[in-house]
Amino acid sequence: MTSALPATTRSITLVDVPAGLPVPGNFAITEEPLPVPGPGQVVVRNRWFLVFPGLRTLIGGKVEGVPLPSIHAGDTLFGPTVGEVVAAGPDTPLRPGDVVTHLLGWREHALVAAADCAPVGDALPDPVAHLSSGSSAYGALTRLAEVRPGDTVFVTGAAGAVGTLAGPVARLLGAARVVGSTRSAEKAERLRTELGYDAVVVPGQGSLGEQLATAAPDGIDVLLDTVGGDQLAAAVGAARRGARFALVGALSGQLAPDRDGGSAPAEIDTFRLVTLGVSLRGYSGVDHPDVPREWTERFGGWLRSGEITFPYARITGMDRAPGALQELFEGRHLGTLVVELPPV
Asked: Which residues form the Enoyl reductase (ER) domain (predicted)?
């Protein structure tokens, strides 16, 4: 055991299940004794944890087909995290000082089985980059959509955690033109100037189909969809023959106040899918276990060469964590959103 550890630690718990989108009042900061690791266990001092829209689905209890459990009233939230081992029980290869990733975020300290931790190593130049959603974008673009040189790629939700990486990755994979969507005119400008998107459509500012026809006058070859709904329908209307659609998210349902986070209906022209031979597939990471390692290797190389950046925003401090999901749902930030817990 290491010395000078605190006697207590704090975590974010769900107070009650909201009827709509969660707000800070649905969460509470609770304090409890710092756990002592047993055999094969470690205590990790979390430094950064991911704020992700999938928590809405878990809180709503709609977990069919999702490889994660529901979150009930009284439960501590969880999610991808980077932290430092501060105490280690017997029979574990990890030692205090090791930096690891695990899934017990939303707390200052986590008691984790060493087998459920992954040492960070030096594959990525910034430890926070291990919280990126780029693996999903990369896997969908390489395994399902199979981006080819010269393709026109459309990325919905391009200002989010997946989209801010999907566009630049599509370009590195050979795409000739990359188009995105975002509901913010300010973010649209940043996507063009900072992340290399050729054009950006803004839902709510005129016909989405007409905007997409202007942004991609020859149609689209690849869709990476994080939104669904009307944006998926517009993409079908812009599809070229043999277009490949990869669906990685359903934000239109997860962010709808009148839904439960477990569905995202869309009305699409299936006749067009048939006549143009358009493929439409959903991406699930559990079906592609080889992708994370491959992504990390390529991501690290691209980051070091400057060919790609990792856009993320930090919310600093445990006291601000209960409001982090609301900030995510309101679209206040570009890219990945993390809560940072400064070292003590």
From this structure: 25-339
